[in-house]
Amino acid sequence: MEKLVSLTASACPLNVANLNTDQLLPARFLKWPRSAGIGKVLLHDLRFDAEQRERPDFPLNRPAWRDAKIVVGGRNFGCGSSREAAVYALYDYGVRCVIAPSFGDIFSGNAIQNGLLTAIVSDDDAAALMAALEAKPDQPVTVDLEQQIILCGNTTYPFTVDPVRRMRLLNGWDDIDITDSYRDRIAAFKADDRTRRPWATPRATS
Amino acid sequence: MIAPQTLFDKLWASHEIARREDGEALLWVDRHYVHEGSFHAFSQVKARGRPVAEPGLTFGVADHYVPTRGSRRAIANPEIARMVRQVEENTAANHVTLFGLDDPRQGIVHVVGPEQGLTLPGLLIGCGDSHTSTHGALGAYAFGIGASEVAHVLMTQTIWQRKPTRMRVTVDGKVAPGITAKDIVLAIIAQIGADGATGCAIEFAGAAIRGLSMEGRLTLCNMSIEAGARCGMVAPDATTFAYLRGRPYAPAGADFDRAVKQWSALVTDGGAAFDREVTLDAAAIAPIVTWGTSPEDALPIDASVPDPAREPDEARADYLRGALAYMGIAPGQKLTDVAVDRVFIGSCTNSRIEDLRAAAAVLAGRVSKVPGLVSAGSSLVKRQAEEEGLDHIFRNAGLEWGESGCSMCVGINGDLVAPGERCASTTNRNFRGRQGPGARTHLMSPAMVAAAAVTGHLADVRVLMAGRKI
Ligand code: SF4
Fold this sequence. Notes:
The structure holds 2 protein chains of 2 kinds. Chain A is α/β, with parallel strands linked by helices. Chain A has helices spanning 21-24, 44-47, 85-93, 105-113, 123-135, 163-171, 175-180, 183-196, and strands at 6-9, 11-14, 70-73, 97-100, 117-120, 141-144, 149-152, 155-158. Chain A has a single domain, classed as Aconitase, domain 4, CATH 3.20.19.10. The radius of gyration of chain A is 20 Å and the shape is globular. In chain B, the strands form 5 sheets. Chain B has a 5-stranded parallel sheet, with helices on both faces. A 5-stranded parallel sheet of chain B has the order 17-16-15-18-19. In chain B, strands 11-10-9-12 form a 4-stranded parallel sheet. Chain B is an alpha/beta fold. Chain B has helices at 7-13, 39-48, 78-93, 109-115, 147-156, 181-192, 207-210, 214-222, 238-244, 253-263, 314-327, 353-363, 379-387, 390-396, 446-455, 461-464; strands at 16-19, 24-28, 31-34, 58-61, 97-99, 124-127, 141-144, 158-162, 165-172, 200-205, 231-233, 276-281, 288-290, 298-300, 342-345, 372-375, 400-402, 422-425, 440-443. Chain B is globular. Helices cover 31% and strands 17% of the residues of chain B. Chains A and B meet through helix 4, helix 6, helix 7 and helix 8 of A and strand 2, helix 2, helix 3, helix 5 and strand 8 of B. Residues 63-64, 108, 110, 129, 131, 347-348, 406, 409-410, 428 of chain B line the site of iron/sulfur cluster (SF4).
């Protein structure tokens, strides 16, 4: 996993509450292997019309925000389906951080597995950030994970992030490497559990 | 003396292998379900060159992409055919049991797990699908995970989790006749919001919940995720044990009785504390339908949709305008005036035998005014429905009787609602484009979908059932 310490980039406001993973990546693209270029179809049905033409008024299609590495979203961002490919789509498009008042649980879990930061700000700060970006679309935004602050113009906004996820992002750690160091404890748990909860093993295979 | 514990605390404690100082715990996974969509995870496992740690605890199904019409093997779309083939190859290569296309036990993962007795009280269950919360209906700790977590479970049979906060939703009293688990859960989501339970493990309690059948509890827990919850659960009781006895993978004989003893302790102790409590009065719940593009946009059938002009909060008014425009509904329109173009009965929310019976009870001797598809939750449910003659009722009503799979819930097998078309659906998500680009979805119970079918518009099933047995 790629580390993330601090990031300065253009930031695109997406002022939609409950933006779900079906919208981030419509179901018909779930068949695609990641190598097919999932970033191209991020938010497909919002970015493009039925004739595959870009909708010019969609924020991510506006010149200032086309290359956004940061997205500022509404409450419950990434709710819905557990599809991790929604995170691949954001990441492969180039997005490294989503800022929102709240996130779908599974989405934020998937995000951290892939080095995408989900930064939680207050409702008021999310609204203020969006307003600032609407007013001055091409100003860069800095997200500093070490200090847990967002800088936009002369204003700083604090954000929260799960401390474990913060550590993992700062260091670029993969879960599986950490788990492997617990191998003995896993084996001991398993042996003990077989006597403690014998019914937990499926009958036909035991 | 140990402090009183909630059901969730007990489930959590019995799976904790280790806890780090930062609060994340490594948990043992008892059951792991995979499906066609798990291919990203299998690629990750392969890329690391590792075996599946516990192939005997992992079970695969083909559900999301399988055809529901015509010959199941003759899949015209090569990409869809590849998805079904991939899950066969990935499970075979890793010695994982698959309930595949040709298996009589095939069906939707969240229907098959309980049906086979794989899902049991006290288990921790993971699956790369958000509606894994369904399995909590049996008193399990079950939650949806992403592809990287699926890969992690495959390689280690464990998962890292931060303990969710505990929420109890108590539904007191007794529901009126004709009110189902779907109405209860939509009422809950309407009350607390689509993110009302984010980060929470919900325990459903109260007389109205205890009174639900296993099928009803599965519907209820299925939709916990639509309130943002990590998982939902109902403490196991006599209903649970009766449901499980004799199921293929459940313990048998004396083992079953011993298990029941241990399972019976899986209840919230008197005086145990929850982080949040929500209470509903069952008697006040009417048949509910959704009108908008989030499951929280749910109202009793006799209501009218909101009017943005009367909404003081500008952001909320904006949301209402957007949702109504997408749904093609006029502000303030009465729900019963909304005409539907098609119906769908199926999905892991409402496709079990009891759901099909409820829809058939309304449809018997009647004809649907609109086309529609009925897809049983599993091939076994389909067979049982045929033994009971329900398929005739559906066919005689003019509905299509399909094979089992996710079908029109998400449309990735090609069962789509056309752009602009309005579908009365027993599914769980009315998101924009969920049933196909531009599709308009109204969520409701199977009986309410049947009522919409025979009237051609959203309708109160209680009127149609007057004089009939429910
Ligand atoms: S039926 Fe729908 S919600 Fe359930 S697992 Fe299939 S796609 Fe997901």
